[in-house]
TrEMBL record:
Pathway: Protein modification; protein glycosylation. It is a single-pass type I membrane protein. Keywords: Endoplasmic reticulum, Membrane, Signal, Transmembrane, Transmembrane helix. Residues 1-22 form the signal peptide. GO terms for biological process: protein N-linked glycosylation via asparagine. Subunit of the oligosaccharyl transferase (OST) complex that catalyzes the initial transfer of a defined glycan (Glc(3)Man(9)GlcNAc(2) in eukaryotes) from the lipid carrier dolichol-pyrophosphate to an asparagine residue within an Asn-X-Ser/Thr consensus motif in nascent polypeptide chains, the first step in protein N-glycosylation. N-glycosylation occurs cotranslationally and the complex associates with the Sec61 complex at the channel-forming translocon complex that mediates protein translocation across the endoplasmic reticulum (ER). All subunits are required for a maximal enzyme activity. This is Dolichyl-diphosphooligosaccharide--protein glycosyltransferase subunit 1. The chain crosses the membrane at residues 468-491. It holds the Pfam family Ribophorin_I. It is found in: Endoplasmic reticulum membrane. One of its GO terms (cellular component) is oligosaccharyltransferase complex. The keyword Ligase does not apply. The keyword Protein transport does not apply.
Amino acid sequence: MKTSAVFSAALSLLSSLSLVSAASSSSESSSSTILPSTFKPAPVFKNTNLVHIISVEKNFVKENINAVIENVAKTPQNAYYLPFTSDQISRLGGVEVKDRKDSSAPPFVAEVVEFDKESDVQYLRIQLAKPLAPGAQQTIGITYYLLKAYSPLPATMKQEETQFLTYSFSAYAPSVYNTLKQKTEVKFPSSNFPDYTKLPGTGDITEFPQKQGSKLTYGPFGEVAAGSVQPITVRFEFNKPVTHVARLERDVEVSHWGGNVAFEERYELYHRGANLSSLFNRVKWQQSQYYQPNTYALKELKFPLRVGSADAYYTDVIGNVSTSRFRSNKREALLEIKPRYPLFGGWKYPFTIGWNSDAKNFVRTTPAGGYVLSVPFLEGPKQIEGVEYEQVELRVILPEGAENVKYHTSIPSQSITSANVEIHKTFLDTIGRTALIIKARNLVDDFRDRDLVVSYEVPLAASLRKPLVIFVSTLAVFVAVWAVGTLDLNFASSKKK
């Protein structure tokens, strides 16, 4: 998308009623809605047809549930519930629900509802765009991600061996409603999945699952009662890093006077794959790179940045890391980094990267005299195996005196935990800079292209405050130096009589 098109879309978003204001200093948390402890979803729907697609192709699980739902109650209904275990809820993120027959319609609101903290079953409530009439049907598509979903098997291995992971789920899609017909498809990163649960087939199919290349299919199943579970475990080859970012702190600092936007990202990264069964052998590692380049160790990360990015740097707890390469031209900007050592399962690596960019690539003025900033909510490394983020804190540091701050992002609202405005103090500030702080959880790199649009205003007095303070301070220093220079510090000599 061209830059002008991005900002046109940004202005359109900012003028819409769905814009979320973050001008107050209080946190806007998207915490669970509280319901009575005796809550149980009423059987007001049935799934006439359902297809459950599970993808384990990356180091996080992506699930899609496409269902034709029908209102079996006598009154219109607009709340559809999806059950999860309490453990799954803690790892659930990126929930998006759409009308499968109207791609232009906005996503439905999906939120976690809390009714009993001690219960192992929790619910995700989906608000339909409009109540569904009795007997009417609607086709919905539910997409969500589960982090920290795999277990390596074997749990320990040699550094030159092939890594295998396991994942457990139910052959029946999670549902609190009866389902008349359904099937579950599992997609793997390769055709090497030696172990998986087998079930008796139905009709002409003698056994489930059916294997087709890198995919397994359980079903189709006939009518399945609400809440039914059929445990399944699969074991598959995943000879790539299981990259998990426990915490990402991302700063975006806007300078009007400098005409610059500075980015800095601080990572707390883990490899959640199989641990080494013996000490790491550097010599064997170097030898293996010539004849066996495919490894489950993490040895490099690639960060595609916006065109025009410059002055990239890469540091860790020791200091500057020289094993990096930055390429920037009119077509691309790419930062490639190599950690000081290859990361194997159970290893941790904290590091920091940063870069600068021209403010004209991200900031535009509005007809009313305000400003609109459009930046990616999440950038980070782009890896074939994917990257998952458990906690993300994004700080947008605006010019000093910025006010009337508002934001909009297409990141699923269920993943945003809080948003507030604070004061950030740094060098040469008088009252401190306005900072929009957004916290999110359980994100994946599938969202790395989603934009964050921030609108704000900077009064003329506020924009002139810093240069005036610097001018007055500098003038005061010169006056002080001049005053000191005029003092006569010589002692008068006394004549002897």
